[in-house]
Each structure stands twice: as C-alpha cells, then as structure tokens.
Amino acid sequence: MKIAHTLPLMILLAAVSVTASPDPESRSSVIEGAERLIEYELEHSGAWDVVAHLADMIGPRPSGSPNAAEAVRWTTETLESWGLEVRNEPVIVPRWVRGREEGWLTSHRDQQIILTALGGSVATDEEGLEASVVEVRSLEEVDELGEAVRGKIVLYNLPMDMELVEQGRAFEAYSKVAGLRGSGASRAARHGAVAMLIRSLTSASLRSVHTGALRYTEGDPKIPAAAVSPEDADLIHRLLQRGNDVTMKLVLTPRKLPDVESANVVAELRGRELPEEIVLIGGHLDSWDLGTGAIDNGAGVAGTMEALRAMVELGLRPRRTVRLVLFANEEMGLRGARAYFANHEDSLDRHFATLESDAGATEPTGFATTLPAERIAALGEYLQPLERLGAANFTTARLVGADTSPLSVAGVPGFGLRPNSRHYFDYHHSAADTLDKIDPEELKQNAAAIAALTWILAEMPVDTLRAPEE
Amino acid sequence: MKIAHTLPLMILLAAVSVTASPDPESRSSVIEGAERLIEYELEHSGAWDVVAHLADMIGPRPSGSPNAAEAVRWTTETLESWGLEVRNEPVIVPRWVRGREEGWLTSHRDQQIILTALGGSVATDEEGLEASVVEVRSLEEVDELGEAVRGKIVLYNLPMDMELVEQGRAFEAYSKVAGLRGSGASRAARHGAVAMLIRSLTSASLRSVHTGALRYTEGDPKIPAAAVSPEDADLIHRLLQRGNDVTMKLVLTPRKLPDVESANVVAELRGRELPEEIVLIGGHLDSWDLGTGAIDNGAGVAGTMEALRAMVELGLRPRRTVRLVLFANEEMGLRGARAYFANHEDSLDRHFATLESDAGATEPTGFATTLPAERIAALGEYLQPLERLGAANFTTARLVGADTSPLSVAGVPGFGLRPNSRHYFDYHHSAADTLDKIDPEELKQNAAAIAALTWILAEMPVDTLRAPEE
C-alpha cells in the first residue's frame, strides 16, 4: 500500500503555528504505517537473524579487531542485499588486546582474585606488581586519603544500587558508579597509587567480571586498572574489616596496538518527499571482547537494521530519509560518533531527529528523549501506536545514547529506546553477554518499537519536534 | 544444667519391646536438650566464624593441597581449644592441579569457549588437539553413534531439569545428569573419541563453569575432559543446528602429582552413659579448587563442628558418644570415607547412627534418612523440637551423603541434612562457591538443626532406629 499524501509542505508548515494537529489523512498515514510495522515485526521480525549472526557467527567485535571488520563487511553486504544505498565512512579506531590477567592475595595464602583489565589499561611489568590494598567508595575518598594511597593498590568498592535496579532504573544505578571506572585510575595515580581495581559494575554475579573503558587524564601517571568480581571485592572488604593487612600481586599485560581503519556503516532509505531531512537511527556495531556482544549491542544493530528492512519489505517509504548508522568503536572512546559528527557537521540542521538503540534486547518500556514533555505531549496522537507495545512512555533526558550524544548536544532532537533494564547489567560488558540472554519474543517487541518510532519521526508531516523559536 | 537421667539402661531396653515411648523424664531430657541447643544456635551460633575462616582465611582446599593440610591443622587446633579429644587419622589422597584450560572454535573465527577441566582429567598435548564436535544427550546416544564419534570431541549437552530445581528437588535434578560427568569420558573414549566436554551441571550461569570428578573405567583409553559453560554448550548446539560443521581446538594441561598424606579429623565428646555407642556426625573438609568451598563444604564442617561446641558450651553431655569426622578428599574419590570405613570396620555395630552435612548452608527443610518411614514415625515425639526450624520432614533414601555412604551400605542408620536446595547448584563446584553465598541467619538455622538432631540421636534413651529383627 502506498501511503496517501496530498497537502503541500508549505500549507502544513503554516498549519503548525496554529495547531499541532495535521489533516486527518496525513495523521492516518503516520499511524497506519506505524501499526503495519508493529504487526509485521511481531509476526515476521528479522532482528533475531541479524543478532544471531553477529553474536554466534562473528562473535566478539572489539574495536579494530578482525571480527569488527567482518561485522562492517557483513552488515554492509546484508543492507545492500535489502536494496538499500550503503556506504562505509572511514573511522580510525584504537586496538587494544588483553594479555595475562591474574591476581593473588599474597597476604592470604595466595588466594586467586578473579579480575579483568579495564579497556585501555596499561600493563604491569611481566613479573607483575605487589602492593597493599586500600579500599574506597568514591573519588573524593581517594583525595581525602591523599598520600596514604601512595605505593598502594586502590580498590573502588561501591556496589550498584539494587533498589534502583529493582525499580527499573538500572541505568541510573549504573551512572552512579560508572564514573569510578572511567576516572578512578587517574585519580588514584595522582596521589601515587600503583594500580587501580574496581568492583565490577553489575547487578548480578557468579564470580563475574565486567570490563569497560577507562580514561586516563593528562598529567597523571597511567597505572594498570582492572575490574574484580563482586565476590572478590567482598572478600577483600571482609579481610580488611577483620583488621588484616591485605597485599596483592597483580599481573596485567594488555597491549595497545597501532590504530586501525574501521568504518561507520551508513545506509539510507531516501525520503519520498523531504529526502534532505534525515531521521538518523542506529547504534554501535563494536562490542567488548569478553562476550559476543548480543545485548550490547548486537540487539541495537539488529533492531535498527530491521526497521529499514521492514519498511522496504512493506513498501513503506516515509516522507523523510531514514539514515541508519552503525557506529564504529563506541566502547573504546566514541570514535565512530565523533567521526560521524565531524563528517556531517555542515548538515546538522538537516538532521530532523535521532533514535539510538543501545540499551538491550528486552521488551520496550518507552523512550528517553531530549525533548521536553510539552513537545512530546504535542506529538501525542502520532505516538499512540506505541501504546500497545507498552512503549509510549517518554522521559526527558539531556542525552539519550552515547553515539548520538554529539548530535543531541548540538540540538538535534534525540530518542533512545529504553527496554526493560532489570537484567541488562547482569550481562553488560561481561563474558555472559551472549545470544541466549535474548528472548526472541521480547526482541520482536523491541524491534517493533524501533520500527514504529522511526516511521513516526520520518513520516510525520510537520516538525513539531523543535520549539517555535528555534 | 545437667540433664536428669535416672533409669538404668536395662529397664529402657526392656521397655522398647513393649512401646517406643520411654518414661517422661527421659523424653524431656531429649527434648529439653534439643530445644536448648536450637535456642543457643539461633542466638549464639559460631558456625559463621568457622566457615568464614575456612573460606576466607584458608581459601580453596583441594585434595592434597597445602590449603587442605592447613584446614586439617586449623580444625584440629580449634576443636582442641574447645576441650574435645581430637585425633588425625591418616589418609593417602590424590593431588591433581590445573594447567592451561583453553578452547576455541576453529571453524568459527576462533571464538573462545569457556571451560574448565574435570577433576582427574588427563592432559592434551601442550599444543592441544583439534577435532570436530559431536553433541549428545546421554551415554546411550554415544553407544548408538559408535564409530561415528571416532576422532571426535563428544559434547554431553543435557541441562539440569529446572522444574525439579524449582520444586526444591535440585539434588534429584543433579543426580539425573551427574552420571554423564562421571562416566562420559570413558564411554566416549570406548568408541574412539579424542576428548569429552560436558555442559556444566548448574542451575544458573553467567558463562559459568562447574568442575567435578570423573571416573576413568579400566580398559578404556583416558581422554581429556572438561566442563563448558551452558552458554558455550548452547552456542555449539545452535551452530550444529544450523548445519555447520563445528571444529574445536582444546588445550588442557592438568597434572596428576604424587599422592599426599592427609587426614580425617576425628573429635569426640564422650557419652556419659553409653560411651561405646557412637553417633557419627560430619562432612568433608576438602573443597574444589575453583571457589573457596563455602557452601561445599565449609558450611557442613562448620555446622557439625558447631554441634559439638554448643554441647560443650551448654554442658550438655549426651548418653552416647558424638564423634565428629571431617573427611579428607570427598571430591576426588572418597578416600577419607574409605579410610574411615577400613579403620573402623570392626566397630561398625557400635555406630548408632550417622548425620552428614554436605548439601549447603541454607535453612533446613528436613533430613534424608536411610530409615523407613515407620521407624521415623516411632521417633515422632523425639523429633518434635525440629518442627520450629521447619526441619522435621524426613524422607527415606538409600544413601544420604557421600562420606557416610559406606556406613549406610553396611546398615548403620544414616541421616543427611537437607537445606533448601533452590540455589545450591548455582554455585556448586564453581568459582562462585564463596562466603557471600551464605546468609548468616540461614546458617544459624542450619546449624541449629544439626545440633538438635545430633543431640536427639545421642541422647535418646533407647534404640528405636534399628528394626527389631536386626
């Protein structure tokens, strides 16, 4: 079915200053298309096939790796096979590979401490280092200890707030501890610490370790950094509480290799009426190295690719261009996002909206958006199709996803899918991020929400997203 | 308080043939003592201190290891410090240590397979071996495949029955799959397989691996054997289902070292009236090497040691002797249990009953027993103190614990504590068996149930355990 479309753009643009309600025919083209996409996804979604290929057939896709290159090749080929225009926009990405990762409590019968290096960590000597462990719960506590951490290993031991996690606010719980992982090494090094450990950022553990990137700050010494399992953090805590001196030997031998040329994969379904206006959808194609990147972010890649495939399959060509971007290297420093922004800075005003999926594969609970509530309210009738998915709940946030954050900061209205987050951090950045963690039925609902909102944004006849004064 | 005790034994023994009900005064000495022990344990249990020392301060205690020797030394010293008679009965135990444990899917981009050697496994060559993977679900299926497994790696991929686990019957679920781990390698080797893998026997996983002993059978080649994580088993299953040939490289370099002299730790509280009659309580002191053996079996050691400590502390000396046995090397072949049986075979008829704790640290749900239901019914009034703990549920089984199994087979009435098993196999034989998995309040209830039943068995004035014809 071709969507009916009659009113010229000028009249629509004039109408918006009077009322946000467009003519009934245009409204029905938005709603009908969204409903068809939802029904199609719930029945015939191909999202599983994509995430299954990425996770099982390619596997871990860390920045700069041969697997990451294969993911670029395979998604490009797959998108082309769907009849889309596809290009690879080069991005220079870092390459960092693990070596030995071992720790023992030399003060306590050489008990093994299970740990994994943080992404980007420098190495210890081959023989490792040995030092006393000091436990803290915040960056401020390190500053307060000051010289007392000199020559020591600093352990940041702050669990995720499980009450927030249980309330469905796992990303808030994560954001309260993620700064320790990013900044903890440099902060400890500033006061003379020789290594940094952090309790794995997770909402579940079976002696599990969760990696993630750190950021060394200019001017501070670079010290090795690793995440220990919550159980190991608890053990060290108990030993210290009992008044023991705890010393540890640490061997970490990761290596930073030369940068590699990778690419953002960019595919477009050209708009039938406003092709110069772009609704950018997507997520990152790289993953961490420990798991196979099924939920982070094979699912986001699959869901956003699938939105395009479904539109092609149903013959639904929206007013605006839908541009899919599969970003290179989100995990090790957002190089893909930065390259995209730099390459397209001169067309920012043609970016109508963004929709990022990088929060997992479970059923949708709604979307985060950079728009204020009154703008969302004005879109009310367009968003109604999302209700049957439980995905019509919009909450305002300054940023809605990592890869679209430069665009959000520049004022492009942003949306980020928010699936049920209860178990997301059980697996996130760990070896347990594997395909079996995805429920095919939930993934369908997830993909349906992405396809529907993509269509709504690309099809809505007027721009009700931006404030009138913009 | 000293328990009142007046009636001579002969009168009691005469009474039992008429009725199982002893005189009211004797009954109250059984029940009052059990109630005092329960109250004491719920308030002042020292079980936590023991399991915390074993798990945190000593750590993993695999058979023949320095840590296992330290556990013998520390428990001996601790029991002596409580005023008990303690001796070490020598046991020669095996010593087996892990080496490299690595696997990759050479057919699928060298994806890493997470695995751990089964206890006692032979090694591959240093360079490893490479072969196709054949998936089966039973020993019989291997026999049916026969020559088709020659030169292959056989993967036993049978999950635990989670319905049984949810019903509180986790040990039944475990027993349905444990035979694959014990016998799977030799069965596959008989038909020419070059290595054996098994899906980890577990009720939860975050890419977790669970070890356990295998038994090579005489006459079959010894092949390397390892447990893969459920996620990895699922991955291989999916790849095979999609029609792929799956080949794998496997490097396992464990080593069998010379046997080591270890010991069963034997401590006694001599009976005040029938010192020659023995109520044997205990569990194994060794653990697997991956975790710190908190639930398997630090908790069982702690609970049974605590029963003796509480009796000493409360001045409760029972009629019969309570003999605590902390068995060496349960995990790698029951050497401690066999040595105990061989050493004490001439006094089997003086073993009144056994009570083993080797099923975890959670709140009790009751006991397994080798006694038929009618014998338990006859003990009804003695067992009443267990009701407030929810521990008065007795179910008949042929065997009730590994270390007491030779005694059970020989006809000594056996009891085995049955804590809530819902999460036991989440941690069992894995790195996640750590102290944090124990809830101190549940451990108190667990210890209270052990202390109470120990007292009841040792104090009851007549032998209602054995059938009259025995």
Structure notes:
2 copies of one chain form a homodimer. Chain A has 15 helices and 16 strands. Helices cover 37% and strands 23% of the residues of chain A. Chain A has helices spanning 9-18, 24-44, 47-58, 66-81, 139-145, 162-166, 170-190, 230-241, 294-314, 335-343, 373-378, 380-383, 405-409, 424-427, 440-459; strands spanning 85-97, 101-105, 111-113, 115-117, 129-136, 153-156, 195-199, 225-228, 247-252, 255-269, 274-284, 320-327, 351-356, 364-369, 394-396, 414-419. In chain A, 56% of the residues are buried. An 8-stranded mixed beta sheet of chain A has the order 1-10-12-11-13-16-14-15, sandwiched between helices. In chain A, helix 2 runs antiparallel to helix 15 (440-459), helix 3 (47-58) crosses helix 9 (294-314) and helix 9 (294-314) packs across helix 15 (440-459). Chain A is an alpha/beta fold and 470 residues long.
Give short descriptive properties of this protein.
470 residues; 37% helix; alpha/beta; eight-stranded mixed beta sheet; 23% strand; disordered N terminus; homodimer
Low-pLDDT segments, ≥5 res of chain A: 1-20
Protein structure class of chain A: alpha/beta
- Please give the most extensive interface between any two protein chains, plus how many residues each contributes: A-B, 35 and 35 residues
Shape of chain A: elongated
Secondary structure: number of strands of chain A: 16
Strands of the largest sheet of chain A, in order across it?
A: 1-10-12-11-13-16-14-15
Number of helices of chain A: 15
Radius of gyration of chain A: 24 Å
Approximately how much helix is present in the residues of chain A?
Answer: 25-40%
